[in-house]
Amino acid sequence: MGNLPHELTSFVGRRREVTEARRLLSVSRLVTLAGIGGVGKTRLALRVAADASRAFEDGVWLVELGELDDDTTLVDAVSSALRLREQRTGNPEVLLTEYLADRQLLLVLDNCEHVVAAAAALSETLLRSCPELRILATTREPLAIGGEAVLRVPPLTVPEPERTSLQALPQYEAVTLFVERAATAVPEFELTEENHVAVARICRQLDGLPLAIELAAVRLRVMSAEQILQRLTDRYRLLTVGSRGAPSRQQTLRLCVDWSHELCTDEERELWARLSVFAGGFELDAVEGICAGDLPVENVLDVVASLIDKSILVREEVGPSVRYHLLETVRDYGREKLQETGELVSLRRRHRDWYEQLVVRCEAEWIGPRQVMWIGRLDAEKLNVRAALHFCLTEPGEAEPGLRIAAALYPYWRARGLLREGRRWLGQLLGRHPGDASRERIEALYVDSVLAGMHGDREAAKALVDEGAVLAERNGDTLLGALVVHAAGCCAMFAGDLPRARACFEEALPVFRDRGSLLQLTWGLLGVALVSGMQGDGAVAKMCGSEIFALTEAHGESVYRGWSLWAAGMAAWQRGHLALADDHVKQGLRLSHLVDDRISACGALEVLAWVAVGSGRARNAAELMGAAEAVARAVGNPSTVYPNLLVHHAECEQQARAVIGDRVFDAAFDHGMHTSFDDAVALALDERRPDAAASSNGTPHLTRRESQVAELVADGLTNKAIAARLVISQRTAQGHVEHILAKLGFTSRTQIAAWIVEHAQDPHP
Fold it and tell me: One GO MF term, please (predicted)?
């Protein structure tokens, strides 16, 4: 469990540092890896975290802080890395603390230096309140709080001038790193009597800094080790004379990047500088649309490829697409060069315009077959979208495009549960925008009001609706007026005023049908379906739900089809049609799982628990309620959307307890609480052993996949062999084994094998 990235290149050396860091983690709850930029703090932290992962029941989670704009977004960054959705209202830091309070978890805070005060304050708060939490931080300066254990990360070991024999060099980490990266650049490269002295001197001249060594090694594609050494020595002398006050290692790193820049062609240098406008990763279409300049678009790919070859640009495959990013030091260097050209502001505006077009296109195609692709793209582009919004906030006169971006992000923010983030951007942008009756402002007010209502802030939602109503009347556009009326209906629904909500939704729906987009029509239909279902008007709820389903299915949409099926299932359950409710909600859950819409999935798990109670499966219901509660703690309970949910939950829980008793109910509920999201979905969809559904004796049961893994464990297979047999990663196989041990209360693989033998007569799927 966790989000650590897989290593793409070999990890060289650092045996002492890895051992010491793991020892410190065993005795201290805050360990800080401190050192200069480019020394390899992040890579060391990831290796230490991966090695220690088995010790943390709730996983190891990486929080990348390098792209944060300011201290105020730190808590959001941690919550986002932990995949917490922002449905519940309240102080974000308090909510984060509550979430981590009883979890055994390692948090890796990477690149804290520019938010060190905030990182220190948050770390101290979390460590005081969360007894099983441990933090591993990387930074250029310690956090300087009580209980912190600081490990200074040195450069890689380098040979002394007199110890440069060919046989002795492989023992030095810097040389090993240079040779391995050189062999990647030039497969036939190896240390020889002719080049080993130059290699040793290169590593020594670069002070063993991994980034500098990797940049130097790739130059073997165009020159020999001796030529690299000569060029490097000349550049060192120039830089030392030009900047005597800077620390020597900073001079070295700067020199290496400066030297890399000098080896680039004019086109490569120009593109390098322009690429620094991106925050985080980016794709080729963005490079072509933003950074091409005078370079013909058809030539951009060749220059990008050349920058990858020279290790200026890093290539990474993310799902079906290829993305690129600049290392932080390289990006900062490029930004300096871009500022020298005087085109930084204009390029940031082009960057903003391009990402505005991206999110607007995403909104336009949301009800369509590319929805899942768009969700993945926006997940990957979050940092760039935030950079575009930040530009709109900080540049005079740019708030209106920012409102367009924010309004277009509404379906994404809603699907991802990023309610607080959406409200923060909208609040700031509305505050900087002149209060005129423009379409941009009214649409932004609509989105902000709905997000506020979903977040539980009814007072703010109503104030935004009131302002929107005044501006919409002044504007005179009937579609904008319908949006505001629909927002008023949402406010009424969240407050439990169902007659008022239904009247508003029914007033807006004909306008959406006549003049609105497919997305707006879906909003209108969903509002009527939800409220009529709450009122017990099954005929209208079914009619609207069927229209949503037909509309979304015809266009290959998933998010709102999942919501419509959830609403239809709830309405069927209220009418006593348990089989129909079960079918609808399971279909919706599959779609919610596909797009990782956990707010909708949480509601689906809850309704399936009610169905289980009515079907005589009380223990299964308790387990599903526990799973729903676990998801709700991370994403927020959908009771803000469906106010009667808590009442139905209490009634069904009481019925289940009456059937199986408090002890069995609590045990099953606790088991559901500690089930992963994927396993909870599998449980709800009955994708497990057949005897697991009906048992009420408290005996733990395994999912279908866990049963397969357990049988292979009983056959004596290792995790690696299991992974190969089932065509899964070794880490996934390990995770399944750990889940099996936890479910069965065992501590060894031998016990799993004995359990399999004992249950050999059980029916298998």
Answer: ADP binding
